[in-house]
Every structure is written in structure tokens, then in C-alpha cells.
């Protein structure tokens, strides 16, 4: 009997020792992985479009999946001042890396200099910045070549007219711009204008910003239709959300989108490609929002002090009636 008691006690002690050791190793494992985590502050510019929602989802899910990342997210509701204070907050919290999708191109020098002085590397996502010596103020940029996208829109239109033997027809173009001063707006407008200039029969008769939203796209198109609805035969719209609003405005004005008015848009969302299949839109220039994994990889590399590629262009194509169907459904 007595011997059994001792045995039980001994087993108990051994079991306890195992438990303690187990706990110890567990806590040190999670402690070290926590210590090794990269804290990334991401200032997203807003939630103005389906493209943006897809971009946010891509970044958030890549962060969640990546065991090395701990992400803090902030939505600026399309206001630069909100982005500036979000960046200042990240600096104050001592994050390891800051990622920003800048709403407009200019006005970033001061705050990015503050990040630099705090030794926090900055990744630009999607849109670009402009200004004196700004290239020294960020470590990497992951986004699209917006000027190229604008040129693609112009080239597509030229080919489309040629195919119908209408290359010399007078084109009265209405042009819906994105958020004024955003690099996505500036680049697309510039690229399209470059091509338009080479066609003496192309005239941009209306041009205004719809701020990349469906509501404003509709409002601005309504105004275009009121002032030049009888003349407009082409619409170029700098994103699919504005285009969806514009299509509604065109229909309400008694015209047939895609036929009376040739429509070229950007982003290539599901709605955009569906509109092509429905005959309401003619071409959609792809802009790829799925940059989440690249952002995480870059953030980790920067934290580890590795050299990263300064500019990463995401791959993009173009859709029209010839290839829309086989590329459905889209991931966004
Ligand atoms: O085209 C638009 C969004 O910056 C590329 O922003 C992005 C643009 C995109 O609101 O839908």
C-alpha cells in the first residue's frame, strides 16, 4: 500500500514537471514568434469603388494569412488629411513598416519625411506620389501604369473605329475623370489625351470629375447629357463604378449605351464585364487590385533589412466582346 502511494506521488511529480516544461516551451515559442512579427500600418484611402473594396480585401486577407504580419488598418474616406493623421498615428505607435494608398499625388513630403526620420520604411500601394525629392521618401511602390492604361483606351478606340470603316468619323467624346489629382486620374487622362491628339477628328467636348463613385458618375453624366447629349458619341470613364452610374444616366436620357454612345471604362470588375456582355459597354481596361501578397512580402523584406524592388507593376490586360465571356467571373 505504502509503496503504491509513493509511486502515485512520483508519477504526479513527473507529470507536473512535464506540464511546467510544456507550458514553458509553449510560451517561449509564441513569445518569440510574436517578437518576430512585422507590425504594418496600412492607410487605405477609402471605400469609393468596387476596385477599392477588392484591394482592401486583398491586403487584409494576405495580412491575416501571413503569420509574420500584424496589420493595423485605417480607412481615410478619400481625405488626404485623414491619411496624414493615420500615418502620424502609426509613427507614434512605432510600427515597423507603413503602407499607404495615397488619395492624391501631391502634399506628402512633410509626413513621409517624419516617417523617414523615425526610420520607418514606407510602401506606396496602387497610386503614386509626386513632388520634390519624393523618390527618397518611400522604399517601394506596388501599382499600375496608369498612363499606359489611358493609352490602351485610346488605342482600343482607334482600332474599333477602323474595324467598322469609321476611322474618319467625327468623335465627340465625353470624359469622366476620377478623383482630381489622384495618380490614377492624372495618368489615365494623360495617356488617353496622347492618343486623342493624334486623331484630328477626335474632340473631347466634355470633361469633369466623378470622383470614382457611382453616384457622382451618374450626376456628372446627367449634366453632360443635358448640355451635349445630342452630340456625344463616345464616353471614356475612368472607373467602372462611375460607368455604371453613367450608363443609367444615358438610358434615362433616352439613348442606348454601347450603341449610340461607345463606352470605354477602366478596372474590369464583374459589373464591367457583365455590361460588355449585355452590350451596354464596349471595352474595359483592366486594373489589378490584388496586391496584398506583394505588400506583405515587401513589408517583411524591409523589416529584415533586405533590398527590395523600388517599383513593381502589376500585370494587366484589356477586355471587350471578344474575350469578356471567357474571363468571367472576375475575382472582383
Ligand atoms: O481604378 C478606381 C479606384 O487607384 C487604380 O481607384 C485605383 C482606382 C481605381 O477608386 O476604381
Structure, explained:
The protein is of the alpha/beta class and 332 residues long. It has two domains: 38-143 and 289-315, Rossmann fold, CATH 3.40.50; 146-287, Response regulator (Rossmann fold), CATH 3.40.50. The chain has ten helices and twelve strands. A six-stranded parallel beta sheet has the order 2-1-3-4-5-11, with helices on both faces. Helix 7 (214-228) crosses helix 8. The longest helix is centred in the first third of the chain and has 34 residues, at 2-35. Residues 48-49, 51-52, 126-127, 144, 184, 212, 239, 241, 266-267, 287 line the site of beta-D-fucofuranose.
Explain briefly what this protein structure is.
InterPro entries: Peripla_BP_I, SBP_2_dom. With 332 residues, this protein is of the alpha/beta class.
* Low-pLDDT ranges: 14-34
**What would CATH call the class of the largest domain?**
Alpha Beta
CATH evolutionary superfamily of the largest domain: Response regulator
- Bound small molecules, deduplicated: beta-D-fucofuranose
Strand content: 15-25%
DSSP, total strands = 12
| Largest beta-sheet details | 6 strands, parallel
Radius of gyration: 26 Å
Structural class: alpha/beta
The helix content, as a percent range, equals 40-55%
| H and E string | HEHEHEHEEHEHEHEHEHEHEE
Mean pLDDT: 92
Strand order of the largest sheet: 2-1-3-4-5-11
Distance between the termini: 73 Å
> Which architecture of the largest domain would the CATH scheme give at its second level?
3-Layer(aba) Sandwich
Q: How many helices in DSSP terms? A: 10
CATH topology of the largest domain, anyone? Rossmann fold
Rough shape?
elongated
Domain Periplasmic binding protein: 42-307
Protein name: YtfQ
Keywords: Signal
GO molecular function: carbohydrate binding
